[in-house]
Fold each of these.
Amino acid sequence: MKKLINDPRAVVSESLQGLAAAHSDVVTVHADPDFIVRAGGPRSGKVALVSGGGSGHEPLHGGFVGEGMLDAAVPGPVFTSPTPDPIVAATLAVDGGAGVLHIVKNYTGDVLNFETAAELAEAEGATVRSVVIDDDVAVKDSLYTAGRRGVAGTVLVEKIAGAAAERGDDLDSVAAIATRVNAQARSMGVALTPSTVPHAGEPSFTLADDEVEIGIGIHGEPGRERIPLEPADAIVDRLLAPILEDLPFESGDRVLLFVNGMGGTPQIELYIVFRRAAEVLRERGIEVARSLVGNYVTSLEMQGVSITLLKLDDEFVELWDAPVNTIALRWGR
Amino acid sequence: MGLDSRWAEAWVRESARVIAEHRTELIALDREIGDGDHGENMDRGFSAVVAKLDGAESATPGDVLKLAATTLISTVGGASGPLFGTAYLKAAGAVTGTQELDGAALVALLTAARDGIVLRGKAEQGDKTMIDAWSPAVDAASAAQTDGASEAAILEAAAAAAESGAEATEPLVARKGRASYLGDRAIGHRDPGAQSSALLLRAAARTAAEAAS
């Protein structure tokens, strides 16, 4: 293991200290319990958005705290859900009286800890709604599994629901929009290399030099199949086909195409992926009306990529284009 | 003579010791079919419980279990935190106010723990989860108690059944938790949560045997 760290157990707290030092104009970082809130305190009368989960997926979620997106992010240990205590603390810290929406990726640990936290926060007088994100089409048989996982589509939910909260929608409306974005988004990823959790010290799985894992989750959990490495275009086709047929996305649809890097894949390759994905969509008569390319939902240093399609309507476009001022997404001001 | 709060405290301390001892093994099991954090999370949680015990006065076994429950919920994280936390919380609730646990109380404690995990995690026996250790343990403890076994023998039966149950998860396909994403590839690997559950129940049996001797 070769990493730029000090004590493996201090990785999350030291990184948060750096984030606080770098971005105090946008966020305020609380330590013990650890959570990140929008600078300037709770916004009175605005629905507050809280998300969180294991660390190691940066900039998710702390990089999306700020105007027009999240009010708080709760980072757990690397690849491990935060416990209920910091989630409760963050929820109460950002509650502006209009209620709090929890945005939870569908992983058993996240769901159980956020569920417990929501019960505890409600006992403290907060009104909490929860939306569970499950955009990953790689999980085939949801009946016999913990269900589809929440992956890169989470960013799109956080941006669009965040804009809805910023324009003054009430809690039920913001929850409904978040649910609708999740319902219209589909994702699938591929890993070329594994990642190494700092305190574990060894890669979380193994792949031969010429092998890739299709349908990977954001912690390196496996997906559909392991195949020999192919040219980028062939891999993109393998990722897109199940996404397209699942919703389904059809000729005449307008979409947001999101090509997400897993942390170790350079931008130059992400654009090669985007090029092919856009080509396939054009051939099918699907209009790419908005796009996002970059490392937004990562898996430490994993080499890999995920593709997310969101079917757009006018409201989604308006909310996507609305101003946002966070560490990782910033436009329209 | 039943098992008192000194036993409960010894059980929790022994649990922390064996979890620390098997930390690397649990991490390795979890890396096979999960995300490799189970040993780390359990070690962090039980170390915190021991630190809390050092500064607390616990009059009954229920007090000890409740302290363990709230500490595990707030320190373990992942799925294991709410699951084990709920187990200890329900176990504490089943023996509230009892100074010395007899066989019937032990069976009630184990049953409540198992039911708490089922309630929170919505898993069934055979899903390749910690339930596959807890359910046979409850059945074995109950059978031993019906046969008139001592407290130590009841916990010995529970521990042995949990160990067999954990081993029996190896050929299963997972239907809950992160291992469920593996499909057939989970076959041949032991469930880490079932393994840590067996370690905890073995710690209960060992400390009960020491208390009886």
Note: The domain at 185-320 of chain A is CATH 3.30.1180.20 (Hypothetical Protein Tm841; Chain: A;domain 3).
Amino acid sequence: MKFGRRTVLGAATALATMSLAFAAQAQETIKVGILHSLSGTMAISETTLKDVMLMLIEEQNKKGGVLGKQLEAVVVDPASDWPLFAEKARELIAGNDVSAVFGCWTSVSRKSVLPVFEELNSILFYPVQYEGEESQRNVFYTGAAPNQQAIPAVDYLMNEEGVERWVLAGTDYVYPRTTNKILEAYLKAKGVAEEDIMINYTPFGHSDWQTIVSDIKAFGAAGKKTAVVSTINGDANVPFYKELGNQGVAATDIPVVAFSVGEEELAGLDTEPLIGHLAAWNYFMSADTDANAEFIEAWKAFAGEDRVTNDPMEAHYIGFNMWVKAVEAAGTTDPDAVIDSLIGVAVPNLTGGYSAMMPNHHITKPVLVGEIQGDGQFETVWETPGLVAGDAWSDHLPESAPLISDWRAPMSCGNFNTETGKCGGQGS
Amino acid sequence: MPLLRRLVLLTFAALALAFPATGARADAAEISAIVDRFATASKFPQVEAVIEALGAAGDPLAVPALRALEAGELQVAPDGRVVIERGDALLDPVTLEAAAPVEGRLKKVRTKNSIRRMIGDVISGLTLRAPEPAIRMTAAETIFASADAAQLDALEAALAEETDAGVKSRMEEARAAILLTASDDPAVQMAAIDIIADRGDQQALAVLATYANQASNADVQAAAREGVAEIESTLAMWQAGQNIWYGVSLGSVLFLAAIGLAITFGVMGVINMAHGEMVMLGAYTTFVVQETIRNSFPGAFEFSLLIALPLAFLVSGLVGLVMERGIIRHLYGRPLETLLATWGVSLILQQAVRTIFGPNNREVGNPDWMSGAFMIGEMSVTWSRLWIVVFALCVFGALLFAMNRTPLGLQMRAVTQNRRMASAMGIRTPWVDALTFALGSGIAGIAGVALSQIDNVSPNLGRTYIIDSFMVVVFGGVGNLWGTLVGGLTLGVVNKFLEPYAGAVLGKILILVFIILFIQRRPRGLFALKGRAVE
């Protein structure tokens, strides 16, 4: 067998071109940072979000990437250590030159990275429901603000279930404290008496719920329909629900509506005794839409047959698609251009509608109330008639009621005080 | 809702007038016809209407369909038939005979809490005359709680022919609960209040308090208030007992978490930061055992914990043995390095479990004998907690026996008390060290089996217990098993008495402050070792 010189030359040239093209392509990627804890206490929630981002990026690359370039995920592990979040954010932005970062779960981790994003002028997509009272130029909040989760859920209980007596139970940190403050003000404005509200905080990872559950039972025996609004964080929920089940607190007597319990948390529980307890989210895995069916199928193929989807995953789905659309509209990944072009971008969500980015960097979402089913899923029993726009500054707290946020020129302010007419009403 | 209920009542009244036969028993075909209306009930109000119709028909034949609806088993086939899907079987909702197979996807008849409540009321009305006393009892209880005036006639009828004394008194209480709100006659209401106040439990309190909030007649209201006060004072007494029980149960959990540490840290003096992870390994062993049983021998699920116990002991004990041989024995006498090394091991174990099992919680089921609660007077005792207390005492007894009555225990004590002398007597001290450490770890492992029943099974499980464990051991007195028992129980009870007043967060802080002060006064804890062993 003999090769002609030309063949060899041709092959060599082809190879060289190919490797050049490959090299060029390798250089010409757009980097996307993923800042979720893969170890430590928060790994339980955040690992899934890392996986869903990898999946979204992979799918986008199959569709040809963004601006004709492939996306490259840069994954770091801040290990549930709040100061480390700031360091890792700096590493992503300054060291790896990422165009946008998707990450954080707890509010304290978000607060810890804020100065970094401001200083280095980058973009963070934050996918978790949070307490509000914040609007920052470099951050896009794709999770729910209190008016997109807590308030509608309370409205549901009040109007549909006739609840008159409220237990606000939460883990002792900033999200439950602020949310409960807002809820308390809201309930009182609705005419609920002081003695009909019981507020209870427990430490992180609280595991002995006997006293509290029996207190709740006693509180519920005062002759008015009682409900529990739970902002109990992740891990403490399993023993809490087990105790509810064991002490026979049925959802038909005292329903518990939770803001931090999703499909993922229920996966570690026998949900049979919990049927009927509620959760309020902007997305349930059981949503009956084509987009959701497609998303679930892709997720199961990517991560495994027994995996579930949940609300923060949808938030990342929305946030990522918004970013892709905004980058394509801006024609560049330059942060300033993308921040400007993100406002007003609308992309389909998984519950059959469109979510749009508002000028206050929060998005519009439907609010769903679902009941826990025996198979660990939620069934939607109520939803808001339309989309609810996220409100950065709660109207129910006196100090934040006059504040608005609008990042469009000429206002470009995250905390404009409508009473004094000045930017910088509170915080940053 | 009140408006709706009133409407329902009106409908009832209208129906009763129009069809004098209502309340008489309808036949199966009629019930089937009503049940079939679920097929077109896609909205909640429509479902409610069908349930009402079933209640109005007054035939217990409707009960299986209603129960299935409550359990989410009632399904609509594409051809419009309504069937019960139970496991793989399809049943006719009225006759409960096997139904013809269905092509296409079944669609569940949707329910929500208010509908389930309504179902409960209707079922109780229909089962008031069921042959089994237990069912009649539940029916009477449900009516008592809901005080649904629509059930009054059915209740009166059932009461007239009730023979069981227990059920009868429950029915009288239920009637009293209804009459309290439905009647206008102060004398009837007063009598009702007496009956309800005599019952004296939390549900009676709820019924009376509801009425006291909305009473129209001042005298009756005062009587209701009095009844409320009376029940509240009885309940307050029970509350103290309840707190002690909660304290004992929390104490037993603390004790279980700490007892392994009482050996590795207390007896051997190793500051073992990986102790919590031994507990976690035990919990994960339970998960693996249950998973295997679920997949291969579903019948043996009730025994899963008993199978898991020895395995958890072996797994954690083995890991402990390897740890001692591999790391800790090189670090005896250097507490700081031991602390850092075991801390490192704990991180490695956590991340290893996270890699193998994933970061999420794993579901460990409660066997039936560990679910639910029972009442002692007005004190509710959950089975899982009771078994854990019993289990903790068994572990304590076994350990005490092992330490005091077995050759290994003797050697362990000898080595801790005077290593050189023990060595001179021919005891292989390094092996005794290894076995002691393995024993402590293994005990931590079986504690994990128990804790898997009440807590998360996640890689972080150990983290939650490590501080508490050290607290108990230090408080109880290092090197003393009795100290750990008494220490754990004391901390549990104190914690539970503080919690209602101070709240869970502050309660925990107060306990810590208390222990710090206590250690200042008695540095060696509750049960200090005396004599030579101290050196």
Note: Chain A has a mean pLDDT of 89.
